[in-house]
Amino acid sequence: MPSVTTLIDDKVPLIKYDNTWAPGTSADPLADAYYLGTFTSNNVTNGAVMWSFNGTAFWIYGAKRPNHGTYTVTVDGASYANIDGYSAVNLFQQVLFNKSELTQGMHTVTLTNTGTGSLYVGIDLVRPPSEVGGAGDQLVTQTVQDTDPSFQYQAPAWNRNPPSVNFFNNGTGQ
Predict the structure, then answer these.
(1) In this predicted structure, what is the pLDDT of residue 140?
(2) 155: CB partners within 8 A, 6+ apart
(3) What is the reported pTM?
(4) CATH 2.60.120.260 placement within the chain
(5) Which domain of life does the protein's organism represent (predicted)?
(6) Which CATH architecture best describes the domain 3-135?
(7) How far, in Å, are 14, 35, 140, 160 from residue 9 at the CA level?
(8) Pairing assessment for the beta strands 8-9 and 125-127 based on DSSP bridges
(9) Calpha distance 100→146 (Å, rounded)
């Protein structure tokens, strides 16, 4: 069966953050190093984020930075503790955790900040692959940019130069 990889950005409502998490801001001079220029972070011990997905594997991406600490990931009740997000240099779009060879079906993942002293953990994106179609089917991949003429935007409802457009894919956005 063909496999489709979906990139779920940190802002997608499938990811449920508790009230200790906050969206990253452009005040961070390195914000544009994150996928789509967005991230959601936490510096509160025991702050948690949860999501569920249907599949057999997943990857969590984020940054490893000097002000990041430890966290625990729980997958369907099994905990993986003392994972360290610290790096002496800023590293972005890093795999923070991955799990494969899960049985096909629904899974629940929780990431909990276990760092103390206001150390951060952050989510940039989650990538769960999914099997689609039947054996022998082939997938066709196509990216359609927002500037493609097949899109029609009606002014004034659509702004062709939104704030922080440099964070959008290929620097364009509507």
Answers:
(1) 79
(2) none
(3) 0.77
(4) 3-135
(5) Eukaryota
(6) Sandwich (2.60)
(7) 10, 8, 22, 22
(8) antiparallel
(9) 34
Pick from 16, 5, 97: nearest CA to 55: 5
- 14 is written with which tokens? 């499938």
What is the structure's pLDDT at 80? 97
pLDDT at site 170: 75
With a CB cutoff of 8 Å and minimum separation 6, the contacts of 36 are 9, 125, 167, 168, 169
Residue located via tokens 């940054």: 63
DSSP string for residues in the chain: --EEE--EETTSTTSEE-TT-EE--TTSTTGGGSGGG--EEE-STT-EEEEEEEES-EEEEEEEBTTB-EEEEEETTEEEEEEE-B-SS-EEEEEEEEE--PPSEEEEEEEEE---SS-BEEE-EEE-EEE-S-TT---------TTSTT----TTTS-SS-TTGGGSGGG---
Q: What pLDDT does 157 receive?
A: 84
Output the pLDDT for position 144: 83
pLDDT, mean of each 10-residue run, the chain (174 residues): 83 95 90 93 97 93 97 98 97 97 92 96 92 79 83 83 76 79
